[in-house]
Amino acid sequence: DAGVIQSPRHEVTEMGQEVTLRCKPISGHNSLFWYRQTMMRGLELLIYFNNNVPIDDSGMPEDRFSAKMPNASFSTLKIQPSEPRDSAVYFCATGHEGTGENTGELFFGEGSRLTVL
Amino acid sequence: AQKVTQAQTEISVVEKEDVTLDCVYETRDTTYYLFWYKQPPSGELVFLIRRNSFDEQNEISGRYSWNFQKSTSSFNFTITASQVVDSAVYFCALSDEGNNRLAFGKGNQVVVIP
Q1: pLDDT digits over A12-45, tens only?
Q2: What pLDDT score does B73 carry?
Q3: What tens digit of pLDDT does each residue of A50-67 get?
Q4: Measured over all CA atoms, what is the biggest interatomic distance in chain B, rounded to whole angstroms?
Q5: Contact between chains at A43 and B43 (C-beta distance less than 8 A)
Q6: Cα separation, B55 vs A2, whole angstroms
Q7: Among all residues of chain A, which has the CA nearest to that of B45?
Q8: Who's near A100: CB < 8 A, 6+ residues apart?
Q9: Using CA atoms, how far apart are residues A16 and A31, in angstroms rounded to an integer?
Q10: Which residue of A has its CA nearest to B92?
Q11: Distance between CA atoms of residues B113 and A46, nearest Å
């Protein structure tokens, strides 16, 4: 299994530019999460999908952030326009949600490190 | 609301010493899961253990051991005979039954000095 695949691994952009981060979940997983990690705030949940449907986006900081999951094998997190305070590592994580022994374990991608100048 | 507290931000130990990381959690749910993840300097998050709220047995995996005590809402992690490769940030996390939404603590930065 290839694991959760994120791209790009690193992105440097200028303030005001649009940023799109991509995630390919593990096949068969029905839940997908976008987390942001910064030194100040640690790991924050931004948005959570179950069966491709957004369940909780209360962690999305502003309207500049949007996320989509058009199908079970792809998700994007978009920031438009980007700002320096968006600089962080963005993780995508997926899992199988439901009752049973597999519930609760998340598999993380390697993260996308974003720097907004 | 769920909350996970890892009070120690950075811990330095000399190689071969033991180190214990404290994790205290808050939840109103009767069924929940507790986790530890490791984040080495390379940045990825590596799953270490999952424990459900009905299983208070301690667990040992090699040099790693976990002590779950519901009475004190704690799920502590001990690394025995630490090695330089153990240097990482360790996160404790909590989720409800039926969903994978993890609430993370702030993490413990462990530095193992050779």
Answers
A1: 999 999 999 999 999 999 999 999 999 888 899 9
A2: 95
A3: 999 999 898 998 899 999
A4: 43
A5: no
A6: 31
A7: A108
A8: none
A9: 31
A10: A43
A11: 35
Long-range contacts at A9-12 (CB < 8 A, ≥ 24 apart)? A9/A110, A9/A111, A9/A112, A9/A113, A10/A112, A10/A113, A10/A115, A11/A112, A11/A113, A11/A114, A11/A115, A12/A115, A12/A117
| pLDDT tens column, B52-75 | 898 888 888 899 999 999 999 999
What is the C-alpha separation between A77 and B70, in angstroms, rounded?
A: 37
3-state SS, residue B55: coil
pLDDT lower than 70: segments of chain B: 1, 97-98
Cβ-nearest to B100 among A42, A89, A95: A95
Instruction: Match 């993380």 to its residue by tokens.
Output: A108
Strand-pair partners of A56? A48
User: Would you state the pLDDT for residue A34?
Assistant: 97
Cβ atoms of A87 and A116 within 8 Å: the answer is yes
Percent of chain B's residues with pLDDT above 90? 68
Q: Which of A56, A90, A52 is nearest to A68 (CA)?
A: A52
